[in-house]
UniProtKB/TrEMBL annotation:
Belongs to the Nth/MutY family. CDD domains: ENDO3c (cd00056). Gene3D superfamilies: Helix-hairpin-Helix base-excision DNA repair enzymes (C-terminal), Hypothetical protein, domain 2. GO terms for molecular function: 4 iron, 4 sulfur cluster binding; 8-oxo-7,8-dihydroguanine DNA N-glycosylase activity; adenine/guanine mispair binding; metal ion binding; oxidized purine DNA binding; purine-specific mismatch base pair DNA N-glycosylase activity. Its EC number is 3.2.2.31. The keyword Metal-binding applies. This is Adenine DNA glycosylase. PANTHER family: ADENINE DNA GLYCOSYLASE. Pfam families: EndIII_4Fe-2S (PF10576), HHH (PF00633), HhH-GPD (PF00730). The gene is mutY. It catalyses: Hydrolyzes free adenine bases from 7,8-dihydro-8-oxoguanine:adenine mismatched double-stranded DNA, leaving an apurinic site.
Length: 297
């Protein structure tokens, strides 16, 4: 049984009981999924909805079940397999991460947060998520959803405001129950933020938590500036995506003219997007002037 000191504003019994009933059926949470495969899911889930990650992750771990298998793939194949998940630099970083784990860690994902933080593409959130979800360590795992739930339940605010890693980690560490139930508490807190205590329309009628400072205070509005709505259409990200679509669809490098038809709206923007892809190493230019996915010749 989880310990419950009575001092925490967030009752672990309520949260864990709800999670038992309401958790989503996600394949990377299944027993037997390896630390490497959990790491892959965490890379993919950064800023990307679960529904888009599911098919790509499933195929990825079938094709490359280990870090060494991923490391042995060509960078171009990895970028191609990333498909339309977006933010494709993550694919390249994942490949680099696989290479380091295979070469320096005997093909085993490290379990220590400080060692995890030395891996390419692994930041503060991802390191703690792997330590917690793959190795059941009692470490605070703080993503956007968790910050929002804590802001509401504990601090009575509509949103979390500017991130402060040390303060955010201390906030969540203070809520973690003792013992081996802590990792389950962490995933349950994330799940609550992702599915019930959402940013725009929290579903308080479905919330398992009987104590919530924001609800108790009558839902005072956010004190910060209004949330910016992220647009995609017309951005450099969209143009980069279009250019990568052309390259993914081809088994061999393509000419500049074939690439140019991907974006005719603004040629300067198209050039900028192409140069940024070249600078990121996601696209390479062959000796005869054609363009291919990372490392293709
Ligand atoms: S009561 Fe509403 S605002 Fe408070 S944690 Fe639950 S869903 Fe979020």
């Amino acid at each position: 049984m989880p310990s419950e000191t009575g001092t925490s504003p967030l009752c672990s019994y309520e949260l864990l009981g709800w999670y038992e009933r309401a958790q989503r059926d996600l394949p990377w949470r299944e027993p037997g999924v390896s630390a490497w495969q959990i790491l892959v899911s965490e890379f993919m889930l950064q800023q990307t909805p679960v529904a888009r990650v599911l098919p790509i992750w499933t195929e990825w771990v079938r094709r490359w079940p280990t870090a060494s298998a991923t490391a042995a793939a060509s960078p171009a194949d990895v970028v191609r397999a990333w498909g339309k998940l977006g933010y494709p630099r993550r694919a390249k970083r994942l490949h680099e991460c696989a290479t380091v784990i295979a070469r320096d860690h005997n093909d085993v994902v490290p379990d220590d947060v400080d060692v995890l933080l030395t891996l390419p593409g692994v930041g503060s959130y991802t390191a703690r998520a792997i330590a917690c979800f793959a190795y059941r360590k009692r470490v605070p795992v703080v993503d956007t959803n968790v910050r929002r739930v804590v802001a509401r339940v504990v601090h009575g605010r509509a949103d979390a405001g500017t991130a402060s890693p040390s303060r955010d980690h201390a906030d969540v560490a203070a809520l973690l129950p003792d013992g081996d139930v802590a990792p389950r508490f962490s995933v349950a807190l994330m799940e609550l933020g992702a599915t019930v205590c959402t940013a725009r329309t929290p579903r308080c009628g479905l919330c398992p938590l009987s104590q919530c400072a924001w609800r108790r205070a009558g839902y005072p509005p956010s004190a910060g500036p209004p949330r910016r709505v992220q647009t995609y259409a017309g951005t450099d990200r969209q143009v980069r995506g279009r250019l990568l679509d052309v390259l993914r669809a081809s088994d061999s490098p393509v000419t500049r003219a074939e690439l140019d038809v991907a974006w005719l709206t603004d040629t300067a923007q198209r050039d900028r997007a192409l140069y940024s892809l070249l600078a990121d190493g996601l696209v390479t230019q062959t000796a005869d002037g054609r363009f291919g996915l990372a490392g293709e010749e």
